[in-house]
Amino acid sequence: MKKLLPDGISDFKTLIENNYYYVDKTPFISEVGKNVGKTLLFTRPRRFGKTLNMSMLKYFFDVRDAEENRKLFKGLEIEKSSYFKEQGKYPVIFISMKDIKGNTWEKLFKNLKIKISHLFSEYRFLLKEVDKIDSDFLEKIIFNDTVEESVLENSLFIFANILKRYYNQKVIILIDEYDTPLISAYRYGYYKEAKSFFSGLYGSVLKDNTVLQMGVITGIIRVIRAGIFSDLNNLKEYIILNKEYDEYFGFLEEEVKESLKYYEIDSKLEEVHSWYNGYRFGDTKVYNPWSILNFLSTKELRSYWIDTSDNYLIKDILKSADRETFDKLNNLLFGKKVEEEITGKSTLQEVLEAHDLWELLLFSGYLTIDKKIEDDIYSVKIPNNEVKKFFKDSFIEISFGTNLTFKRLIKTLLNNNIEDFEKNLQEILLKYMSFYDVSNIEKVYHSFILGLMIHLEGRYHINSNGEGGLGRYDIAIEPLNKNLRGFILEFKVADSEETLEQKADEALEQIKDKKYYIELEKRGIKEMTFLGIAFYKKFLKIKSSEH
């Protein structure tokens, strides 16, 4: 009988004791453990194994239940290491911030108070073991419904000192998903309050703390420049651009091959590669582990990881994206690469701007590094089919609003109902073209229409400025199924609303005169519709003919 798959399980003990399938990342323990006195920050996309790795560190180092926890590592790589002697030696404070959210500061603070109270209650036995000052502090956090901000802000620091005195051993601090409350604060408009508080909470326990054996923090984004960790001189950051630790988050090629072989679906490797691979952390190519585990379970190639977040920060920036940003995203969607400055220093501030988008997309897992061009300049691309599908399904909705309007537009085109296609396109133009800062330049309209064709990817080849006949057409829509209808679009810009019809006629005649359809005919497309489309500001006219 095959091992069960641990999709959704991030507790190391639960995973091992119930014999779930596990990709051994335990060498991470000894690599991290070398950093005595330091704090390490790892930023990776969500669902790439951060929480499981942190849980693994907790069960390895924790002095509580040391003998029982020792059994969890039987047969794993770390057991063979000389570092295994460090197992079960240290008090550990492990806190995950992944659920610390709220639409007001008061709600978030309450959720955090409950979380810290629950953490401290695991050590309730200390109430009878420590002096009155320490026991009074623990009781206040565990049993009181109301705790002052200043007390909670210093609670982890004080707790670490209590543990040090009791166990006579320095303390390991593990803070998982540290940035979740900060993203929530940014979203709901109380970022300044949250930034000030969490700077104190994290800084007090990690900065110049003489009882600290080691600190490990995980998250998705950096909030260094914003002041959260600005005073931590013992902090070492490891982002996806760094080579160090690049193999410990996500699945490697050999690990995926082994898992597919174990579950007897290794024939699917090529398809799995195109759907879930494509990430690059440092110098290592990485698969999305969440999607791999779900695929092994269902054996269906579809999106799994995309639906695990509401993508708020990305949506927020896209609302104010400029034409240049929109054009670059279009290029990415159609398989091209773009060059961007990636410093790793973009961070939450009062207002996120368009240039922050690229780092957010990269560090959140929606883009990946293709190659480094020069210092801080990288070629980036969409990593795989899963992420590409997210952009195809969601990009128009994020940028313009409801998706139904655009799906209706595409449906009328594919049904060759050009009259309704013209009406729908006119409606979209009037409603959304201000996004593009209309300037009556043909390439602006060209890019806009090209972006609307995103939904056709996968069923049609969308060719822009391709060679055909005696020149270059604007857009050709070629069906992969040769029995379906193809379309050729040619654009013109009129100098007034009155000349729209004339320009549409000229565009249509140009398709015919220059025989743009020849290449599609050679490739076996039997039916085609030619569309001459003329624009004047937010108005348009379409003339069409069938071939």
Report what the structure shows.
- The chain is of the alpha/beta class and 547 residues long.
- It contains 22 helices and 17 strands.
- The chain has helices at residues 12-17, 27-33, 50-61, 66-70, 105-121, 132-143, 149-153, 155-167, 180-188, 191-206, 253-262, 269-276, 289-298, 312-318, 323-333, 356-363, 385-400, 404-414, 418-432, 442-452, 500-513, 518-522; strands at residues 39-43, 92-96, 171-176, 212-219, 235-238, 279-281, 284-286, 338-341, 368-374, 377-381, 460-464, 467-468, 471-472, 475-479, 486-493, 528-536, 539-546.
- It has a five-stranded parallel beta sheet, with helices on both faces.
- The chain is elongated, with a radius of gyration of 28 Å.
- The model has no long low-confidence stretch (mean pLDDT 89).
Number of helices: 22
Name the poorly predicted regions: none
What is the radius of gyration?
28 Å
Helix share bin: 40-55%
* Beta content: 15-25%
> Main sheet, how many strands, which sense, barrel?
5 strands, parallel
Average pLDDT for all residues: 89
Terminal CA distance: 59 Å
User: Strand tally, please?
Assistant: 17
Short description:
This protein has 547 residues and is α/β, with parallel strands linked by helices.
